[in-house]
Amino acid sequence: MRHQVCTVRELELFQKVPVQINGKAVVVVRSEDGGVYALRDVCPHKGPCLSDGMMDKGCTSNEVGEYIFEKEKEVLRCPWHSWEFDIRTGKSLFAPEKVKVKTYEVSVENDQVFVNM
């Protein structure tokens, strides 16, 4: 079922909007390139709202003290323990096949953002 959650104008680039849909916490985010994504707004580790965390670029390293920011990987970081989740897939950066948050299909029509649940 489709749920209208906000307008594109309300969702600035690299921003997030928490919403409740059928009693479920969902966070809608807009990536730097303008894409809109929706994830479950609960960290699977200890349960805080991911919407209270920061959006950032994914970061990898080949050695201590080296930071490589991955332009194509934007993450939502948990506010409690900094677990990072890819906003497009919901997969964690540290154990992508084991730890993830649910994602939802998003559509945009006439400036309206819809989440399909």
UniProtKB/TrEMBL annotation:
Pfam families: Rieske. Gene3D superfamilies: Rieske [2Fe-2S] iron-sulphur domain. Residues 3-115 form the Rieske domain. CDD domains: Rieske. Keywords: 2Fe-2S, Iron, Iron-sulfur, Metal-binding. SUPFAM superfamilies: ISP domain. GO terms for molecular function: 2 iron, 2 sulfur cluster binding; metal ion binding; monooxygenase activity; oxidoreductase activity, acting on paired donors, with incorporation or reduction of molecular oxygen. Signal peptide: none annotated. It comes from the Bacteria. The keyword Disulfide bond does not apply. The keyword Metal-binding applies. This is Nitrite reductase/ring-hydroxylating ferredoxin subunit. It comes from Mesobacillus foraminis.
